[in-house]
Amino acid sequence: MPVTTNSILQVLLFLILVLLIAKPLGLYMQKVFAGQRTWLSPVFSPVERVFYKACGTSVEEEQGWLGYAISMLLFSAVGMLLLYLIERAQAWLPLNPQGFGNVEPQLAFNTAVSFTSNTNWQAYTGEQTMSYLTQMIGLAFHNFVSAATGIAIALAFIRALTRRSARYLGNFWVDVTRCVLYILLPFSVIGALVLVSQGVVQNFNAYTIAHTLDGVTQVIAQGPVASQEFIKEFGTNGGGSSTLIPPTPLKIQMR
Fold first, then answer.
1. Average of pLDDT values for 74-82?
2. pTM of the predicted model, to two decimals?
């Protein structure tokens, strides 16, 4: 691929943006995971407490490496099972205007494992396989929590290196909750609104059937694209060949 002035400018612009946001974002994340007050604390602190109560834990309760690892594995296993069940039952669940059938067992299992592990491998066309409910409650949910799980593991590793004693590495449930509430969710809401403002699809409509002057029938995919596309990219949950949701406002299939 030839190097052009435009490509060089894009790389330079990207590097400049990274340098500009690295320090303020890093300081913000440090406050979040240290439990310090941020501008979002009045909104999310009550929500935090609800999640901690549901998990049977508190911000003062830290875990050793074994407890942290078991919590991570348990959380991932339950999430993977729920995603598998949603896929296998999507034909009977709501928000399925195209009437997609249940995902076949092997594909459902592969998808559940890959989205839980933040790899998002796929061997299907998302807009022809998954209902809106499966995409939102199953796949987009894992785009949030799988990214948060990876960040939580990195935090535990950093604490093990920097603390005088590595007996306690933090609390997995607290780290994941704070990561989703204070970092991934706010940025994703803003990013999704930006995408919507630029024309990216965000609805629950059935697919649009269009007939061209040449007599060709086109199926134009609809759905909650913007709200899922941003977290997929922000959480490094894949792109290109692993894209589940249409990367452009309209996905056209010729018939």
1. 96
2. 0.85
